[in-house]
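Hello K.,

You asked for the raw outputs rather than the summary table, so here they are, unedited. I folded two proteins back to back in the same session to keep the settings identical. This is the first:
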Amino acid sequence: LGAENELLKPIWHAFTALDLDKSGKVSKSQLKVLSHNLCTVMRIPHDPVALEEHFKHDDQGPVSTQGYMPYLNKFILDKVQDNFDRQDFNRMCWTLCARKNLNRTHLLISDEDAFKIWCIFNFLSEEKYPLAIVTEEIEYFLRKLTEAMGGSWVEERFEDYKLELSIKQQSLSAWELITLVGRGTFSKGMDRQTLSMGITEVFHELILDVFKQGYMMKKGHKRKNWTERWFLLRPDSISYYVSEDLAEKKGDILLDGNCCVESLPDKEGKKCLFYVKCSDKSYEINASDKKRKQEWIQAIQMCLSLLQLGRTVPHRESLQKRRDLRQKQQAEQEELELRMRELQTANENKQHQLEAMRKKLEEAATNAAEEERIRLQTQTEQQDRYRMDLEREKMVRQEMEEQVAQKSSELEQYLQRVHELEDMYHRLEDALEDEKRARQDEETVRRLQARLLEEEAVKRAELEQIHLHQQRAISETEVEKQELRKEGTAKENALQAAMLQLEQLEKERQGALEQYQEVVQKLEDAANNTRTWKHKVAHHEGLVRLVQPGSKGPQKITNWGPAAFTEAELSLRKKDWQERKRKTGLFIHRHQGCVH
C-alpha cells in the first residue's frame, strides 16, 4: 500500500495538470495519452481499447479522479512489477505538471533541482489529496538541506516562518515548497552550486535511499591496482561509478546478512583501509582520511544491521513514525476537539440552563417583589383593618362594659325577682296543696253523694215493691181491699215516713251539694289564686313556666265540680238519674192516686 501511494502521488500531479479549467475532470483523450505514457515508463502492456471499454457507459464527458481510479488500479497499478526505473516514471509525471505549475521567476535553482525537490515533496507529503507537506516535514527537509550544505540551522528563523505559515495555511504545496527553497529563503550566504549539491544529497538520501556517497580508492581483483571510484551506499548494495555523474557504472557490492565490514591496517603505502567481506568476494577500500573511513564503516554496519533485522531504511521508518505520531496526535486532537465541542455543547447547555435559571430567578425575584409588595399592601390593609377592628372592639368593649353594668343591675333585679318568684313558688305550692286538699274533699263529698244516691235508689226500689204490692192488693176482693186499706193506711204512714226519710235524704243531698259547691268554690279560688300567681310570675319573668296539676285531657265541669267525673261517667250518671227521677215521679204519682 505504501509503494502504491508513492506511485499515486506523481500520477495525481499529472492528472491535475491535465485539468486545465480546474473542474476536477479530464477528457478521455488526455487520459488515453496519460495512460499510454504510464504503461510505457512502467513497462506494462498497454491496451488502448481498455479505457474506452471501461468508460463506455459514461456519457458525462470528462472523467474525475474518482472515475479514473478504478481503471488506474485495474489496468495499471495492479500490473506493476518492480522492473522499471522510478526516476523515469517521476520525470514523465514531472514533465506533465511542471509546464503548468512551475514559476521560474526569481528561482536560484535549475529545473533538475526543482524536479528533485518535487520528488522529495511527494515522499514527505501527507497521504491525502490534495497533496500538501506539513510544517513538521518542511522543518525536517530544511534541516537536512542545511546540514547537506554545511550550514548551521537557525531555529529562530524557522519559528518566525512557521508562525507566518500558521497564520495562512500551516502547509505548502509542491510548487510553494520549490519556491521557498529556490528563492534561497533558508540558504542565504550559500551559492547556487552549494544549494544544488545540498538538494542532490538530500534527494539521494531520501529518494534514492543513498546512505552515503563519495570518492574512495578501490583495489582491483585482477590487476590489484588502486583506482578512484565514486561510491554510493544503498540499503542492500554498494555501487561504484567512474565519476559522480553516475554515467558509467563499474559494479555493485551486494550486501546481505552474512556480509561484514572491518578496518585494515596500513599497507602498501595506503592508510585508512577497510574491507567489505561478502560470501563470494572481499573488497578492499581506501578512504581519504580516518574520519571518512569511520563514517563509511559505520554507515555500512548500519545497513548490515538493518538487513539482519529486516527493517526498512531509517528515514522511511522515521517518516512512518512521524506520520503515525501525527495521525495519533490528529486523532487525539480530533478527540480533544470532539470533547471540547461536547464540553462546549455541555457548557452552552449549562449556559442555557443558567440563563433559564437566571430568568427563572429574575421572574422569581420579580414575583417575590410583587408578592412582597402585595404582602406589604395586604399587611398595611390588615393593619388598618385591625386598627379599625381594634377601635371597633374598644367601642364594643365599652358598650359591653356598659351592657355588663346594665346586666349586673338587671341581674340584681333578676335575683330580686327570683327571690320574689321563690316566694311566689312557695305560695303557689301552698295554693296547689290547698287545691289538692279541696280535690280530696271533693272526692269525699262525691263518694258521699254516690252513697246517698245508692241509698236513694234502694229506697226507690223498696217504694216500687211497695207500690207493686199495693196494686196487687187493690185487685183483690173488697175484703182484702179493706184490709189493704188498712194496710194502705199503714203503708201510707210508712210511705209518709219514707217520704219524710226521702225529704231528709233530699236535705242531706242538698247539704252535700252545698258542701260540694263550697268545695268547688274553694277549688275555683285556689285555681284562680294559682292563675294569679302564674300571671304574676309570667309578668315578672318570662323564663319560668309552671306545670299545672290535673288531667292532661280537657277540663270538664259537672254538677259536682271540675274534674269529678269523665264524660262517659257523667253520661251514665245522667241517664241513671233521669231514669230514677222518672220512676220516683211515677211512684209518687201512683201513691198519690192510691191515696186518693
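The second followed immediately with the same parameters:
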Amino acid sequence: MFLEGSLSHTLRRLPILRLLLLLQISERGLSRASRAGAPLEDVVIERYHIPRACPREVQMGDFVRYHYNGTFEDGKKFDSSYDRTTLAAIIVGVGRLITGMDRGLMGMCVNERRRLIVPPHLGYGSIGVAGLIPPDATLYFDVVLLDVWNKADTVQMTILLRPPSCPRMVQNSDFVRYHYNGTLLDGTAFDNSYSSGGTYDTYIGSGWLIKGMDQGLLGMCPGEKRKIIIPPFLAYGEKGYGTVIPPQASLVFYVLLIDVHNPKDTVQLETLELPRDCVRRAVAGDFMRYHYNGSLMDGTLFDSSYSRNHTYNTYVGQGYIIPGMDQGLQGTCVGERRRITVPPHLAYGENGTGDKIPGSAVLIFDVHVIDFHNPSDPVEIKTLFRPPENCNETSKIGDFIRYHYNCSLLDGTRLFSSHDYEAPQQATLGANKVIEGLDRGLQGMCVGERRQLIVPPHLAHGENGARGVPGSAVLLFEVQLVSREEGLPTGYLFVWHQDPPASLFEDMDLNKDGEVPPEEFSSFIKAQVSEGKGRLMPGQDPDKTIGDMFQNQDRNQDGKITAEELKLKSDEDREQIHEEL
C-alpha cells in the first residue's frame, strides 16, 4: 500500500552513499524527529540485520522482491505483505514507490533487514490516503529484501570446485547428468535432485531446460561444482512455477556435473602405459584376459576385476561384451594399460543396468591387458641361443630329453622353474608327459640351445587351468636343452644296436638249467647295455624296465622264462599281424 499515488515525488538521482543520511537511533528505538526536535528531512534507516555476504546492493532501476510491515508511530499496522502472503515486487527508483521507500531500499542486500522512518513529505504528504493513511503521517516500515535483479543481468556462474583433469566440457546438443540444489536468492530451497535418488538428465541447448540453466551448464567439466544465479527473465519469469517458485524470482542452483556425452560420440581411447615390445595387437576373434576398474565419469567406482582377484576373460569383437568395450580392446598389446571411455549408446543405454550403472551413464574403464590369443594360434618359437658348432641331430618325438625351463604368464607373473629343483626336467617327447605346446616347442632343438616359447591355452592347460595356472592363460617358457637320448619305438622297452644273438636263450641261461630266473635275465640285459649291444628305454629306472621286460616274457607268470616263452618284440608283432590277416 505504498505505491505512489497522484502526489508522487520524483526520486532524485543520488549516489547510494547519500541514502545513509540520518541514522536516528535512540535507546528506545527510532525517533520521528531530529535531535533538535525539528521534523525529519529525509528517510531514517536502521540496518538492524546485515548478512555477512553481500554480492550486490540495490540500485536505481533494479527489480526487487521484499516483505514488509507498515505501521504508524503508535504501532498501529496499516499494511503488510505478510498478511497477503505475497511479496512486494517492483522496480526501484522509477517513481512507482513513494519516495521514502525508494530511498530506503537503495543499497540493501538480499536478506538484509531494515527499519525505515519515512516523513510525510516523502510518504503520502498532507493529503494521505483516504480511510487508510491520515494526512501528514510519518510511516514506519520493517523491510526484509529477498530478491534483486536487473534487466541487464546475465547468468552468473561461480566455480566452486574444478577437478584436476577435464577431458571435455559441456557444449550445446550434449546430454548431461547432474545433481543440483535449487534455492531462491534468499536461500529458500525449492527443489533438489538428491531427494529423488537420481540425477537430472537432459540435453543442453535443445529447449528442455530454462534458458539460464542451458547457459549456466555450458563449459562445465565432469566432477565440477558450480553455483549458477539466474535472473527471472531467463528462468520462470512473471508466472513463476507452481507454488514453489514465485513470479519474478531469481533462482540459485548449486550444480554437480556427473557426466556429459554427445549422441555422436565414439569410444575414446587413452594409452596409459605401452610396453616397449609390442609384436602383436589384439583383433576381433582373439580371446583376452584383462583386469579393469570401471567407474562413472565423476569417479564413482561401479566394478573391478581386482576385487574378485580374477581377470575378466572373453572373446573380443564377438558381441560378448558391450560394444564400446569390444571396440576399445581391439588394437591393445599384452601388458598395455588403456583408458576406455564409453558413451551410453555404446554401453548400457538409457536404462542402465543393476543398481550401480544408472541410465545414460558414460563409463570409464581403466584396463590392463594380461594376455590374449587366438584359437588358431600355434606355439610361437623364438631361438635365443644356438650352439655355434654344427648341430646334425636335434630332438624329435620319442627322444628322451633333459631340459631346464622357467615358466611365467605374459604379464611376468612367475609360475614354475626347474631351477627350483636339483636336476633338470625329464621327458620323452611325444609321450604326453608334458603339455602339448611345450612338447612341440622342445622338438627340433640342439643340445645347449635356448628358446622362448609362447604357448596358447588350447595347447596348455585350457579354459580350466591347473594348479597355479589361471584358466585360459597364455604361458611363456624359456627352455634350454641339456641332453638328448635317442628314443625307442613305441611299445619297446629295449632295442638291439645290431642283430640279436642267434642263440639268445642259451646265452641268457647262464647256468644252463633250461630256465632263466629274474636274476639271470637282469644280469644278461645289463651286460648287453654295458657292452653297447643294446639300450633300454631312456628316462626310466633300469631295474623297473628290466622287471617289466621279464614280466612280459614270463607268459605263465611262474617266475621263470623258458625257451618256448622267450620271444622278441619283432617276432610278436609279426605273429599278431599274421593272426589279424
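Confidence is low (pLDDT under 50) at residues 1-36, 577-581.

Happy to rerun anything if the numbers look odd on your end.

Regards,
P.
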